[in-house]
Recover the amino acids of this structure.
């Protein structure tokens, strides 16, 4: 298995689109590395930015499946995600 880092950034108004991922990540034991909420505009609370960073040990197929589901969920909104492999030092 390889350790993958999932960084998910979505505005408050689109948070419902990725609730399934947050629940699945917690249920599967992904490690929450970072969580942040940023207020960008005083009069537009719906555009507050939610950022989550998870680490997960997954096979390539599992990672691809999650990426495809996230891409479908975020299609047409301002949110985005990035997935990259974390380098693990031997020893």
């Amino acid at each position: 298995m390889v350790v993958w880092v999932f960084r998910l950034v979505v505005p408050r108004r689109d948070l419902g689109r990725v609730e399934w991922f947050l629940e699945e990540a917690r249920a599967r034991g992904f490690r929450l590395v970072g969580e942040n909420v940023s207020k960008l505009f005083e009069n537009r609370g719906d555009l507050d930015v939610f950022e989550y960073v998870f680490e997960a040990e997954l096979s390539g197929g599992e990672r691809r499946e999650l990426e495809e589901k996230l891409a479908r969920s975020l299609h047409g909104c301002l949110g985005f995600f990035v997935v990259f492999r974390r380098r693990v030092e031997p020893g």
